[in-house]
Design brief:
mainly alpha, two-stranded antiparallel ribbon, 4 helices, 2 strands, globular
């Protein structure tokens, strides 16, 4: 049997319009996430914004929170920060268990 070859594309960065299409979201919603600190684009102006891997992943999570649970931008910022803190605490706990 021949092993399956998975094709995957690594996304390095996305423009605002590309991120909107990727997340199935409108421009104003993404801008609101930036204003709340959920996403951190690179670039001085909106036209030059580039979103990198961490922001892309956070945008996808934010979209699911908004779509599935109706969480607004401020709530999304809080939830994602708490999830990041939880993940860090789990990593630290795992390092103590290895000892």
């Amino acid at each position: 049997m021949k092993p399956a070859k998975a094709k995957s594309t690594v996304i390095v960065s996305l423009t605002l319009e590309e991120l909107c299409r990727f997340c199935h979201a409108d421009r104003n919603w993404v801008i609101e996430l930036v204003e709340h600190g959920v996403l951190e684009p690179e670039g001085a102006s909106i036209q030059n914004w580039r979103f990198h891997s961490i922001s892309i992943a956070r945008a996808k999570k934010a979209r699911r929170l908004n779509r599935d649970l109706g969480v607004n931008a401020a709530g999304i910022a809080l939830v994602l920060d708490l999830l990041a803190e939880r993940d860090e605490m789990l990593r630290r706990l795992a390092s103590f268990e290895d000892v």
